[in-house]
Write a structure and sequence with these properties.
Elements: E1 7-8, H1 11-26, H2 33-40, E2 43-44, H3 64-78, H4 91-100, E3 109-113, H5 118-131, E4 136-139, E5 151-153, E6 156-157, H6 160-180, H7 187-201, E7 206-210, E8 227-230, H8 238-241, H9 245-252, E9 261-264, H10 269-282, E10 285-288, E11 294-301, E12 304-310, E13 315-321, H11 326-342, E14 351-352, H12 355-363, E15 372-375, E16 379-382, H13 388-402, E17 406-411, H14 419-426, E18 432-435, H15 446-457, E19 462-464, H16 468-480, E20 488-493, H17 496-505
Parallel strand pairs: 2-10, 3-7, 3-8, 4-7, 8-9, 9-10, 16-20, 17-18, 17-20, 18-19
Antiparallel strand pairs: 1-14, 4-5, 5-6, 11-12, 12-13, 15-16
Helix pairs in contact: 2-10, 3-6, 4-6, 4-7, 5-11, 5-12, 6-7, 9-10, 13-14, 14-15
């Protein structure tokens, strides 16, 4: 493993920073007294102590033969259980790993779970590791436009030829496992096998892996992540993971392995309680946002925000992040702590990462479909928020970063989500809403979505356009129609699929 030697840690600087960092602790939500008991049994982490290429969303392959081959692979994968049909077991993926020779053991891993912010955090971790000259593999889901986005090598999506070749390399082994199991491997399980095999073949120095759903029985959970990252937990997939934050956290805590370092973002108290109990059980080390690391300060800047982050080793000032919203600042703090933990900072030695390298890495981060601007005059922003917590973060972020005088929402949601909660989160910021639907079989019909929207917004603020292209045109027209609203904008949201299709319609990818 290639590691750049971090700058030495200055103990005097730490004391100078204490007052400033105390503000993070003071801002922490009220904590359940029982947490103190849990933490007493946990080894809590109290520290003494050339970026990758820009990852753009790829278009369809220009070569007709390559495009045909990729489509054939996509069709074969689509014939399997989709990502919403699950059987809670890792037996099939474990069997696949066995016949492939355990490729997931060939490299260390950083494993990421949580409800929101997983993909953006994974991209930031990847950028930081790449800047410190490590070869990275990143596995995230779902994709915005191209299935090849899910598996990245050295900061860029796997090229289509390699994606197709990887599928055909493991296909005989997939069929072998299919024939020996009660159920065939699912779409997500096969993709996970492809990712782990591709990372071993590259080979990578470290894999950054995002769960598909949950943790304990997620297909990715055949790795032993030396760092487990838990992004904020909220209510989503309640039919599969549980109806409370604590129940959902119980499932997600499955990524915490013995001896690992847990990077814990700010959580509801009951979710934090579950995570800390699991850490005690497996003798894992915990670093908590707002206690051992966090966001010291942030200010809106042109094209993003300027941050001061408190890491496990020290403070990192004047870090430019080209993403919008307070939630992305918190994701950055989590990502920084995860990379510090990976390098052993805060537990094995008292050092800090090179500040210029950290700045370069964060400045290179992109996260398509996360408050992403795809047009100006009027400004059109895309955000993949699909649950109430994500919608609240997007609403706050777009308000802070853009200050639109009038904001038109274009919303296409999935029928299995808390659609009313999502719309309620956007109601204070949308002047009007254009409801539509994407091409997915999971999409809520536009008329059904409109009925919910009328409950939340009132009939006079709701426009129905079943076709997404018509919805975009209507929203842009509404944003342009009155001179006094020269500062009007459009936010397209509700689903990753809606955002991906809108991105294509807007000429991206």
């Amino acid at each position: 493993m290639s590691e750049q030697q971090p700058e030495s840690f200055d103990e005097h600087d730490e004391h100078d920073e204490t007052d400033e960092f105390d503000a993070i602790v003071d801002a922490e939500t009220d904590r359940d007294p029982d947490l103190a008991v849990i933490e007493a049994g946990s080894r809590t982490l109290r520290t003494q102590a050339g970026p990758p290429q820009g990852d753009q969303v790829p278009a369809r392959p220009a070569d007709p033969e390559v495009d045909k081959a990729l489509r054939e692979v996509e069709q074969e994968l689509a014939s399997r259980w989709g990502e919403t049909k699950l059987e809670p077991s890792v037996s099939r993926i474990a069997a696949l790993m066995d016949v492939l020779g355990e490729p997931q053991r060939a490299y260390p891993s950083i494993h990421i779970t949580g409800t929101n912010g997983k993909t953006s955090t994974a991209r930031m971790i990847e950028a930081l590791l790449g800047a410190f000259e490590l070869r990275t593999g990143r596995y995230t889901s779902p994709h915005v436009q191209s299935i090849t986005e899910r598996i990245s090598l050295d900061g860029a999506p796997m090229d289509p030829e390699r994606f197709v070749a990887t599928y055909h390399d493991i296909k005989p082994y997939v069929e072998m496992v299919d024939s020996s199991q009660e159920y065939r491997l699912s779409f997500f399980e096969v993709l996970t096998g492809m990712a782990y095999a591709a990372f071993a073949d590259a080979p990578v120095d470290v894999a950054v892996v995002e769960v598909g759903m949950g943790g304990s029985w997620d297909a990715t959970n055949v790795i032993d992540g030396s760092v487990a990252v838990i992004t904020p937990i909220d209510l989503d997939h309640t039919d599969r993971l549980g109806s409370t934050a604590a129940e959902i956290a119980t499932e997600k805590a499955g990524v915490i392995k013995g001896g690992a370092t847990v990077i814990l973002a700010q959580q509801p108290v009951d979710a934090a309680q579950v995570m800390l109990k699991k850490a005690v059980e497996v003798d894992a080390t915990v670093a908590r946002e707002g206690m051992e690391f966090g966001v010291v300060s942030r200010e809106v800047a042109v094209g993003g925000q300027l941050l001061t982050l408190r890491g496990l080793g020290s403070e990192y000032e004047e870090v430019f992040l080209p993403l919008y919203g307070a939630h992305q600042a918190h994701n950055a703090a989590v990502a920084l702590a995860a990379v510090e933990a990976f390098f052993g900072i805060g537990s094995q030695h008292a050092r800090t990462l090179d500040l210029d390298t950290v700045r370069t890495a964060f400045a290179s981060v992109v996260s398509p479909g996360r408050l992403e601007v795809v047009r100006r005059s009027p400004t059109v922003v895309l955000d993949a928020a699909h649950n109430p917590a994500g919608a609240r973060a997007a609403a706050d972020g777009v308000t802070e970063a853009f200050g639109f005088s009038r904001l038109i929402g274009v919303v296409g949601a999935s029928g299995d989500k808390d659609v009313k909660g999502l719309l309620e989160a956007f109601e204070p910021v949308f002047t009007e809403i254009v409801v539509t639907q994407n091409s997915s079989h999971r999409a809520m019909a536009a008329d059904e979505l409109a009925a919910v929207a009328v409950e939340v917004f009132g009939d006079e603020r709701v426009v129905v356009e079943p076709r997404l292209d018509d919805a975009l045109e209507t929203a842009i027209t509404l944003a342009e129609e009155e001179a006094e609203y020269a500062g009007a904008g459009v936010l397209v949201t509700g689903s990753v699929i809606t955002v991906g299709e809108a991105r294509l319609l807007m000429g991206r990818g």
